[in-house]
């Protein structure tokens, strides 16, 4: 028993010695590389238990905290009595509204304040933050860690990436170092500095949960997902790696309550700095387009096309007389790479094309009916988004009688001459109602089926024959819905 006790004690000493020597070796390696050393805190442990070391962020905050700023933006909001519905003269509240809210009353104005964060990227006063922090504001104030305040000028803001560049009249400011997010690893420690709910210079930490996340309305940004606690006021602040380098711009959280729930998202700093470069030069951002509409490739769609790998971006629509059509791309093509960079998803393609400069060309490698080919496509400029209503097929009653619902759950009818003219198509059939497999696949009443497995659909009767050939299989229907054209996988019984 006594001997066993000595063996346990000896093992503990050896473990501790091993850990200290490894730590010394790591520090020596860090010093040799010139990077900022990372302090570590040894967690309490019981006799014989392995040593666990946790990171310390003290050095990071001391060295880089001064480069983080608080941003306060003021906006004047107007409302008018005309915004409220006024009751009729026989309503019991008519006299109240007439007395206190007379028609034509002058609009009321009030000030709304928003809070955010940012960080200094040049000693002469350029600061990077989120677009939603400073857009449409009347006055922006920047507060440094030394309590000095400056009025800031908005150089430019890009809503598509949520990046903005502002400038204060100052010099000799502390600048944060910029890192390389491509070297960031999932599971790596990161830290955020900002002003959540106005609590200035707050530090929170966590790990990288995932990279390359695509979020709704964020197709141009491969977000870094972390579990770093962020709240309102953190927007626009820096995300640091353990070397004290900024690797991301904290942008948004995923929450059902409005508060932090463990899911935070940051814009990779290389994406943000590319936007900053253009904003600083011209005050706006130019992006490329090639005139296609793409969608994500699914396992069912890949199977219906005969593709072995579920990768690439599926072309659903090619703009008439656009760059892609002129280069020879067609609906049903699967784009595999842009300028030799692999396209793993539709969001990858959107970012790669957007990064291309208008007026140049990109090399597109694509799959079509079992063959892989390549073509160069001219890049046009992506113009600001405009709301436009797509043509609807069921806005007029079709001349033809609907066909009874088939085994796929589709109730179809041929398009009338007037509908074909409005939709500018000679192919397709109208979906009148759905049930069973078609309903589960997401096909809706009013959709127009243009093709099945890239074979054009000429009539409802022709589509019935095409469906019968693929009984028990999964087919890809090319469906037009409003202004969008997408492929929908349909499992047939």
Report, as a whole number of angstroms, the end-to-end distance. Answer: 72 Å
Side-by-side strand order of the widest sheet: 3-4-5-8-7-6
Beta-strand content bin: 25-35%
Count of helices? 11
- Please estimate the helix content: 10-25%
Round the Cα radius of gyration to an integer and report it: 30 Å
Can you tell me the residue ranges where pLDDT is under 50 for at least 5 consecutive residues?
1-35, 386-403
Structural class assignment: alpha+beta
**Biggest β-sheet strands, sense, barrel:** 6 strands, antiparallel, barrel
Shape: elongated
Please provide the count of β strands: 28
Average predicted confidence as pLDDT: 82
Quaternary structure state of the chains depicted: single chain
Structure description:
It is a single chain. The chain is an alpha+beta fold and 493 residues long. Helix content is 22%, strand content 34%. It has a 6-stranded antiparallel β-barrel. A 6-stranded antiparallel β-barrel has the order 9-10-11-14-13-12. A hairpin with a 2-residue loop joins β25 (448-452) and β26 (455-456). The radius of gyration is 30 Å and the shape is elongated.
Helix and strand arrangement:
Layout: H1 2-33, E1 40-42, E2 53-55, H2 58-64, E3 68-79, H3 94-100, E4 108-120, E5 126-129, H4 131-134, E6 139-143, E7 149-158, E8 163-168, E9 189-194, E10 202-213, E11 223-226, E12 238-241, E13 246-253, E14 264-268, H5 269-282, E15 288-289, E16 292-296, H6 299-305, E17 313-318, H7 323-327, E18 334-338, E19 341-342, H8 346-355, E20 361-368, E21 371-378, E22 380-381, E23 410-414, H9 417-423, E24 429-434, H10 436-441, E25 448-452, E26 455-456, H11 460-469, E27 474-481, E28 484-491
Antiparallel strand pairs: 1-2, 3-4, 3-6, 4-5, 5-8, 6-7, 7-8, 9-10, 9-12, 10-11, 11-14, 12-13, 13-14, 15-22, 16-17, 17-18, 18-19, 18-20, 20-21, 23-24, 24-25, 25-26, 25-27, 27-28
